[in-house]
């Protein structure tokens, strides 16, 4: 898990200044009324970090927990469009630092434990690697960078 934790740290280091330098007005633009703004995508990444940190802890002591969430409701009900941008970016960073801490301290035995994310059971190691890939996918969307395929 150390390699995945280090990858997540690298992602944070490589993207935090880019997130902070993007003009606030760009974050709130919606490509279509039913599509998420960049701010809402960042909010989705906060929700993902919240749910994954819970998954990374609970699956270490419960057998195959099913921790899922309705991403559209979470984004809508949290109203990320009105969330203070600097706080949102800081929250995203702190949650990911928290996940790094969890992953660094997870034993290899626990990394092999399974959880369900809406389909077949997968290992926590797989979840952590998938989390990083999902994160990159959405960070590239926010920053208008070359797409990272996901899903």
Task: Please characterize this protein's 3D structure.
By secondary structure, this protein is mostly helical. It has a single domain (2-142), classed as Four Helix Bundle (Hemerythrin (Met), subunit A) (Up-down Bundle). Helices cover 64% and strands 4% of the residues. The chain contains 7 helices and 2 strands; from the N terminus they run H-H-H-H-H-H-E-E-H. It has a two-stranded antiparallel sheet. Strand 1 (114-116) and strand 2 (121-123) form a beta hairpin. Helix 3 runs parallel beside helix 5 (85-104). The longest helix is centred in the N-terminal third of the chain and has 21 residues, at 38-58. The two termini are 22 Å apart. The model has no long low-confidence stretch (mean pLDDT 96).
Strands, helices and their partners?
Blueprint: H1 2-21, H2 24-28, H3 38-58, H4 71-78, H5 85-104, H6 108-111, E1 114-116, E2 121-123, H7 124-142
Antiparallel strand pairs: 1-2
